[in-house]
Structure formats: C-alpha cells, structure tokens
Sequence to fold (177 residues):
Amino acid sequence: MEILVIGGGAAGMSAASWARRKAPEARITVLERTNIISHAPCGVPYYIGGLFKDYWLLQAYDVKFFRERRNIEVLTNAEAEELDVRSRVVVARVGGQRVKLEFDRLIVATGARPRRLLSADARVLYVHHPADLTQEEGYSPKGGLGNPVPSAPRLRRVSFPHRPAFILCQGKNLDPT
Fold:
C-alpha cells in the first residue's frame, strides 16, 4: 500500500506516524513545501523575540528521525502541483524536477492560511510557518525586546480589553505607541 501525505507540519507528520502504526508494511511518503518538518509554531514568538537565533530549534523531529525510526520517507522543498484523484497520482516539484507519485491513500494536511487583516500596502510581517521568517527580506531575530536589530521589525505590547497582545510591525504603520 502506498500512502502519500501532503504537508509535513505537526498534523502531517502525526498522520504519517499514525498510518505507520495502522499499516506497518505500507510505503509512506510525506511532501513538505518548506525545508522544516514537524515544527512547533508556538515557539515562533520566542524566536522573533530573540530568545534563540536558530530557527531549526522549532523542529521537533528531523527527516532522519522519520526515515530511520519510523520508516517514513520525507521529501522537503517538495510541492504538490497537480492531483488526479481518479488515477491516484500527485505531480510534485521536488528539487526542480516534476515527479509523479502514485498513492492508494492520500492525506492532505497542509494547514490553514492566516487571514490578512490589513491592506496589501501595510508593512506587516505575517508569520504562519517558521520558514516565513527566513523569506522575509531584511529580517533577523531581535536580540531581545529591549535590544532590537535595526533592520528587524518591532515587537510592541498593546492592550485589548482583558488581554495583553503583541503586534509585530515594520515602519511607522501600526505603531501602537
């Protein structure tokens, strides 16, 4: 049996591990669009805040772990481009090459997209995935809240009724002070 999982975040890797337990003989392949799998999004604010500078620390398990310990093949920087449900084939771009992957069972665990609340011209850094931080031009993690790197966005504390919150902003737009 061929099981294909699209999405290598926490849900996708959990689904692949669950499939391994239920079908020990299956061939399981995971496609992940970015270079990081099994990540912990709850750690992103700590990375932005400068508690650590290595975003790989957000990854709970690496590709080697899943390959060696769970017998799950993980293809990073691999994006599903086409899906033919009747033929049970996914066409993906892996390392610049288009490859066809056949499946008996398909799991789609691509996550959600954040809702963009502001106009496109607002200079706001939206962080949905740890890889989003490395794609943001000029971004480097801050050296703590009191010591920002000049090119980095500012993290400001604001108050909403009954809840403290932080807004990450660049430039003068949305400056809550």
Notes: The CA atoms of residues 46 and 52 lie 7 Å apart. Confidence is low (pLDDT under 50) at residues 142-177. Helices lie at 10-22, 44-48, 63-70, 130-135.
